[in-house]
Amino acid sequence: MAANFWTSSHYKELLDPExxxxxxPIDKERGxxxxxxxxxxxxxxxxxxxxxxxxxVRQRFDLIRICLQFLQ
Length: 72
Description:
This protein is mostly helical.
């Protein structure tokens, strides 16, 4: 872990919110707005965090793998 977050590789890899908050054309056709999309992401993040606590997963890679298996 870097001593200074702002100079760390983690900070350098963060995506801009403008690039992340983009609706796909299929979602637009279904009537999902950008606000709906943000709410869905927030609820999914909370769900994944609770899932990790229940499964006692510590490593991010393991959590992502479990969530991807669950969502498929």
